[in-house]
Automatic annotation (TrEMBL):
PANTHER family for the chain: CHROMATE REDUCTASE, NAD(P)H-DEPENDENT FMN REDUCTASE LOT6
Region Disordered, residue ranges: 377-430
Species in which this protein is naturally found: Ligilactobacillus salivarius
Record-given protein name: NADPH-dependent oxidoreductase
Pfam families linked: FMN_red, PAS_10
Record field: compositional bias (Basic and acidic residues): 407-418
Cited InterPro entries: Flavoprotein-like_sf, FMN_Rdtase-like_dom, NAD(P)H-dep_reductase
Length: 430
């Protein structure tokens, strides 16, 4: 689980910073907590553009499963600096919306930062912020001057035990909210699927026009993206960016990545000439919303496919591309696979396009079998005979040592009516 911790103080010496550092260290074996500093954030002023410090906070909070805020108490309330940060993050961007938040705090006095936390809770739950502040449990660390040892660890075992209890409840609450959100997401009409990529998600590159022909170059410059021989650590591998490109560009399938905002953000260029591709793509299309890379007649089908994957109705959609298929010469398939992160959240679509006929042809030659037309088969114009289970085919005698490699087996032509173009067959025509 990925959490971020926000320190509500901008003081150089802060006990709330010490508390947050302790929380991150104490739970590091089970929880990934990234601490965010607000000292570089300017005071909020309406009409002022967000700077990089605010954009950074927005991105990190949006991507996190939950937020921990450590607030001091200044004059019975939270700090002006923290209040300013929340104003920034509730004006043009809203990363706290529906985000689980846990409040903690440290104070010189016995009651801890109780009044500041109460004030902060009201701010976070106000319209425009709409955070989901953890109910019931609050961690109030009083007499903070004597609470830590010389190594920055909490001294009292009871205090540590209570903190562990509060954190345990917070994690359970995050999981409950996730489950509730997932159930709600399943509902809804597929026609409402937004193919314009109008929403901002945690991976959206802000400040770059999605429809710009050089979106890749602009977005790379905006994000300081690595390239060349810079290493990238993957789940089970370590590759340079160049190696990743070589690897992906030599895949025997055409790959496309559409994120969970329905933005087309990657394809592997299998051929320099788009016309020679099974599903033609052009460099200038990368970055476009899905609406822009499909013909208008196909949009209903695209919405339906995306929605079924997003809601979990299915995990994989497959369909042939009938208008370019030729019996016993080419059979091109589109596959759309839902992608999820480690927490099960939908993160987009992995599309691959492949001509499966060479595989079928090789199998037939190797086994000495042949295709036989089924006179009773009803061919679906959109799915072909892919859903029809073939009757067992008689197997001719083959060489036990060399298989069928030495015998010429003529593949009989399967006569199939030429189907109409499927409106859901993707962007292969555009």
């Amino acid at each position: 689980m990925k959490l971020v911790g926000i320190i509500g103080s901008i003081a150089d010496e802060s006990y709330n910073r010490k508390l947050m550092l302790y929380i991150a260290s104490h739970f590091k074996e089970t929880i990934d907590i990234e601490i965010l500093d607000i000292r570089d954030v300017p005071m909020f002023r309406a009409g002022m553009e967000m700077g990089p410090a605010v954009e950074y906070l927005d991105k990190k909070i949006s991507a996190a499963d939950g937020v921990i805020i450590a607030t001091p108490e200044h004059n019975h309330t939270t700090t002006a600096a923290l209040k300013s940060v929340i104003e920034w993050l509730s004006s043009s961007v809203h990363p706290f919306a529906d985000k689980p938040v846990l409040l903690v705090g440290a104070s010189y006095f016995e009651q801890g930062s109780g009044r500041a936390q109460l004030d902060l809770r009201q701010i976070l739950e106000s319209p425009g912020v709409n955070a989901l502040v953890m109910p019931k449990d609050e961690f109030l660390l009083g007499n903070v001057k004597s609470a830590f040892d010389e190594n920055g660890n909490l001294k009292e075992a009871r205090t540590v035990s209570f903190l562990e209890s509060v954190m345990g409840n917070f994690l359970k609450w995050i999981k409950v909210l996730k489950a509730m959100k997932k159930n709600n997401d399943v509902k809804g009409d597929w026609e409402s699927e937004d193919l314009t990529a109008s929403q901002e998600i945690d991976t959206t590159v802000k400040g770059v026009d999605m429809k710009a022909e050089d979106w890749v170059e602009q977005a790379a410059a905006k994000t300081n993206a690595v390239e060349g021989d810079t290493y990238v650590k993957l789940d089970r591998g370590l590759l340079t960016v160049n190696q990743l490109n070589w690897f992906l560009n030599t895949m025997p399938v055409e790959l496309t990545f559409a994120d969970d905002n329905n933005q087309f953000i990657y394809y592997n260029r299998m051929d320099e000439n788009p016309k020679d591709m099974l599903a033609p793509r052009q460099p200038k299309q990368v970055g476009d919303p899905l609406e822009s890379v499909h013909p208008e007649r196909a949009l209903k089908g695209v919405k339906h496919v995306v929605h079924t994957l997003r809601t979990g109705e299915t995990d994989l959609v497959s369909m042939p591309v009938p208008f370019i298929n030729k019996v016993n010469e080419k059979h091109v398939m589109h596959y759309y696979k839902a992608m999820h992160d480690e927490d099960g959240r939908y993160r987009g679509i992995n599309e691959w396009v492949v001509d499966i006929w060479p595989v079928v042809e090789s199998y037939l030659k190797m086994t000495g079998q042949k295709l036989v037309a089924d006179e009773n088969a009803k061919v679906d114009a959109t799915s072909g005979a892919s859903e029809k289970k073939e009757e067992p085919v008689a197997t001719p005698e083959t060489d036990a040592t060399s298989g069928a490699s030495e015998s010429e087996t003529k593949v009989e032509e399967v006569k199939v009516a030429e189907p109409e173009v499927d409106a859901t067959s993707g962007a292969s025509e555009s």
